[in-house]
């Protein structure tokens, strides 16, 4: 076959018995350098090998581990067909503007939700961090408190979200020190939106929901919408520039599933327990259907006294309980039909 | 996805915008206001790419207000429209062009009402009626057919309702409600929201 001829596949096998293992690799900058110490290679056929090799060690440190686009690779290593096919993933998430290649394919799977009701603001999120099809961390924290009365939910790239939350927290604290009063949630959302604006069009992906309680000390703010005399506020800020104020937001790959549950049950007059239960139900249903959401659910409740955190709950238990319930219902129905 | 419409009468301008703030397939907000008040008698309606709309519109808004603070009098609608267009044109061939489509509606005490159509390629046209968005394809011919330069306010609102009903009937996306505002020599008036139920 053509491929085998190019890399002298057969000749490599024939020579394998007489291979020596050189102590020091050659100083030449070709990809086959490091293979010379491995079996099935010989000094004569420097360009031919079929073991996925650490080619990255030959590249400059800046490009370490980075994936370049498929077109570039096929142009470069025309003499190493095996290398190109074995080391690089076949399907890369194609980025629209890639000035710097991504270190690894990122995924933005999550379910976060927050809504306002008479008892304050309730925020809930799952705890799964996924990365190109596998669960990188089953116990990550997507709800990050920014200060005693402001909580942020993160969706998007976990690293970007963690960094920008810290930057926002720092800027809010600086504002408080300089001006003697806390910045309102609306102001914090505006600040975050303006800080993210220069990165529009890059790979940065932060979709944050800010839930806060604005105390009397924050001073007169623009409260155009009636929030029924309550000081809570809820903002959705996205790295593409969106900034929306609302009563109910859900963000992430699991958000459509969560929206459908929340739209049925959320209204202003909910009690705190009802709100917690519907938030939990929405996250549970989203994790059930969405592959990129799962594991546990975190819940934070923000009131005038600050935020309170409910213990992390593993949704696996809920899944098994539901399964038991369904089984029980099925046997009940069967008994009913038999008795007719 | 988004829809803007403006109709100029003999002594007023009627404008309307839909209320949906969407993110891919989800409606994140049902009561989003796409109109920005530049001055007492000028409104800027802005649709387009997610962050660009608010950033650009607020930039224009603050600059128009700055002009008033510095010079003691407000920019006329024609001047504001040209200022907006100039900014769009300046950014068009930069690394960060603004992808926004605009309608600027205003009332000038000397020139009367004016409606200016601008798009993301920084074109500017003063028009008696205009619309932006996919909905424009469905409603411009209605405007062509029924528009007269001497429309009364009620007739203009009826014309707007006709457009809304056509969208409700034929447009693939659900645009349940529209914010409606009217500008005349007294200033900007909020009219009743135009809500269209299921057909």
UniProtKB/TrEMBL annotation, chain A:
Predominant subcellular localization, coarse grouping: nucleus
Statement: the UniProt record of this protein carries the keyword Ribonucleoprotein: no
GO CC annotation terms, alphabetical: cytoplasm; nucleus; proteasome core complex
Subcellular location as annotated: Nucleus
Biological processes, Gene Ontology terms: proteolysis involved in protein catabolic process
Coiled coil: none
InterPro entries named in the record: Ntn_hydrolases_N (IPR029055), Proteasome_bsu_CS (IPR016050), Proteasome_sua/b (IPR001353), Proteasome_suB-type (IPR023333)
Pfam families according to UniProt: Proteasome (PF00227)
This protein's record includes keyword Transcription: no
Keywords: Cytoplasm, Proteasome
Protein name: Proteasome 20S subunit beta 11b
Source species of the chain: Oreochromis aureus (Israeli tilapia)
Automatic annotation (TrEMBL), chain B:
Subcellular location: Cytoplasm; Nucleus
A biological process term (GO) from this entry: proteasomal protein catabolic process
Entries under Pfam families matching the protein: Proteasome
InterPro entries the record matches: Ntn_hydrolases_N (IPR029055), Proteasome_beta2 (IPR035206), Proteasome_bsu_CS (IPR016050), Proteasome_sua/b (IPR001353), Proteasome_suB-type (IPR023333)
Entry superkingdom: Eukaryota
Claim: Aminoacyl-tRNA synthetase is one of the keywords in the record: no
Keyword field: Cytoplasm, Nucleus, Proteasome
Transmembrane segments: none
GO cellular component: cytoplasm; nucleus; proteasome core complex
Function according to Swiss-Prot or TrEMBL: Component of the proteasome, a multicatalytic proteinase complex which is characterized by its ability to cleave peptides with Arg, Phe, Tyr, Leu, and Glu adjacent to the leaving group at neutral or slightly basic pH. The proteasome has an ATP-dependent proteolytic activity. Non-catalytic component of the 20S core proteasome complex involved in the proteolytic degradation of most intracellular proteins. This complex plays numerous essential roles within the cell by associating with different regulatory particles. Associated with two 19S regulatory particles, forms the 26S proteasome and thus participates in the ATP-dependent degradation of ubiquitinated proteins.
PANTHER family tied to this protein: METALLOPROTEASE TLDD (PTHR32194), PROTEASOME SUBUNIT BETA TYPE-1 (PTHR32194:SF2)
Subunit structure: The 26S proteasome consists of a 20S proteasome core and two 19S regulatory subunits. The 20S proteasome core is a barrel-shaped complex made of 28 subunits that are arranged in four stacked rings. The two outer rings are each formed by seven alpha subunits, and the two inner rings are formed by seven beta subunits. The proteolytic activity is exerted by three beta-subunits PSMB5, PSMB6 and PSMB7.
Entry similarity comment: Belongs to the peptidase T1B family.
Stated name of the protein: Proteasome subunit beta
Organism per entry: Oreochromis aureus (Israeli tilapia)
């Amino acid at each position: 076959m053509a491929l085998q001829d190019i890399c002298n596949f057969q000749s490599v096998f024939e020579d394998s018995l007489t291979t020596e293992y050189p102590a020091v690799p050659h100083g030449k900058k070709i990809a086959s350098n490091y293979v010379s110490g491995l079996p099935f290679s010989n000094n004569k056929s420097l360009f031919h090998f079929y073991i996925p090799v650490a080619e990255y060690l030959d590249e400059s440190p800046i490009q370490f581990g980075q994936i370049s686009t498929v077109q570039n690779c096929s142009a470069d290593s025309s003499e190493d067909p095996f290398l190109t096919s074995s080391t690089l993933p076949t399907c890369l998430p194609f980025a629209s503007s890639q000035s710097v290649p991504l270190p690894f394919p990122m995924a933005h799977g999550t379910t976060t939700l927050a809504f306002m009701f008479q008892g304050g603001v309730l925020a809930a999120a799952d705890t799964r961090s996924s990365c190109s099809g596998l669960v990188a961390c089953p116990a990550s924290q997507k709800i990050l408190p920014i200060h005693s009365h402001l909580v942020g939910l993160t969706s998007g790239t976990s690293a970007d979200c963690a960094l920008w939350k810290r930057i926002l927290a720092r800027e809010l604290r600086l504002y408080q020190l300089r001006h003697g009063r806390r910045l309102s949630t609306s102001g914090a959302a505006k600040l975050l939106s303006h800080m993210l604006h220069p990165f529009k069009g890059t790979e940065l992906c932060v979709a944050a929901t800010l839930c806060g309680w604005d105390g009397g000390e924050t001073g007169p703010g623009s409260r155009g919408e009636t929030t029924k005399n309550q000081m809570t506020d809820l903002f959705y800020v996205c790295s593409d520039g969106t900034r929306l104020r609302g009563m109910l937001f859900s963000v992430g790959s699991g958000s459509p599933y969560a929206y459908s549950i929340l739209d049925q049950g959320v209204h202003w007059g909910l009690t705190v327990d009802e709100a917690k239960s519907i938030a939990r139900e929405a996250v549970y249903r989203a994790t059930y259907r969405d592959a990129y959401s799962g594991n546990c659910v975190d819940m934070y409740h923000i009131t005038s006294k600050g935020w309170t955190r409910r213990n992390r709950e593993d949704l696996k238990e809920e899944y098994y309980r539901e399964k038991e319930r369904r089984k029980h219902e099925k046997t009940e129905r069967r008994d009913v039909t038999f008795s007719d | 996805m988004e829809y803007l419409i403006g109709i100029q009468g003999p002594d007023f301008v009627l404008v309307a915008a839909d209320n949906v703030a969407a993110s891919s397939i989800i409606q994140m907000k049902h009561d989003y206001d796409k109109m920005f008040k530049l001055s007492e008698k000028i409104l800027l309606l802005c649709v387009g790419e997610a962050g660009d709309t608010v950033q650009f519109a607020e930039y224009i808004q603050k600059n128009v207000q700055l002009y008033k603070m510095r010079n003691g009098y407000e920019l006329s609608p024609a001047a504001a429209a040209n200022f907006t267009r100039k900014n769009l044109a300046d950014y068009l061939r930069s690394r960060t062009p603004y992808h926004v489509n605009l309608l600027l509606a205003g009332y000038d005490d000397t020139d009367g009402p004016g409606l200016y159509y601008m798009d993301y390629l920084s074109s500017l046209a003063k028009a008696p009626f205009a619309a932006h968005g996919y909905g424009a394809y469905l409603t411009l011919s209605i405007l062509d057919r029924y528009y007269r330069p001497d429309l009364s306010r009620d007739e203009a609102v009826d014309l707007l309702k006709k457009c809304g009903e056509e969208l409700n009937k034929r447009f693939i996306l659900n645009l349940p409600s529209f914010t409606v505002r009217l500008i005349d020599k007294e200033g900007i008036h909020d009219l009743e929201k135009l809500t269209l139920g299921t057909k």
